[in-house]
Amino acid sequence: MTIGVCPLSRLEETVAATGAARVLSLLSDGTDAATPAGIEPANHLVLRFHDLVEPLVGHVHPRESHIAEALTFAAEDDGPIVVHCYAGISRSTAMAFAIACARRPGRDEAEIARALREASPTATPNRLIVALVDKALGRNGRMVAAIDAIGRGADAFEGRPFVLREQR
Asked: What is the pTM of this model?
């Protein structure tokens, strides 16, 4: 199982490289996300919220409803999926971690977090998304602890596309 992660600017090439048939876009209002070539519109979910770790007036923060919708979409097919946000650093890496944890409920969260760090030195998963998924999956804080353990990623304007491979 493969989860591709990228910034918006590298979406088309990441979809082609991974062979994904499904795309999850995590974007703020006002940012367009055209469905990539070869992806059926029904296989492209766009969720709109800002990259926030707490509520901020005038902005949409990640909510439980976003998490439920994303996890349901990812669970509809266990084939390759591409997850992206604007920069490919925070929202998308958090959701890739979430999907990997959801698809492999018996796999250690810390192991998945370490695989995420190895795949992307810039990954800085959005802590609010991770906390919401941790709660939704009943992981009792283990997902948050695993992300805290890998620390903040290297500073970057935009992350490089990478693949988080799901071990069985």
From this structure: 0.94
**For residue range 92-120, what is the model confidence (pLDDT) as tens digits?**
999 999 999 999 998 999 999 999 999 99
* Radius of gyration from C-alpha coordinates of the chain: 14
DSSP letter (8 states) at residue 152: P
DSSP-derived secondary structure for 84-136: EESSSSSHHHHHHHHHHHHH-TTS-HHHHHHHHHHH-TT----HHHHHHHHHH
pLDDT digits (tens, 9 = 90+) for 39-66: 999 999 999 988 887 777 778 788 899 9
Domains of the chain: 2-153 (3.90.190.10)
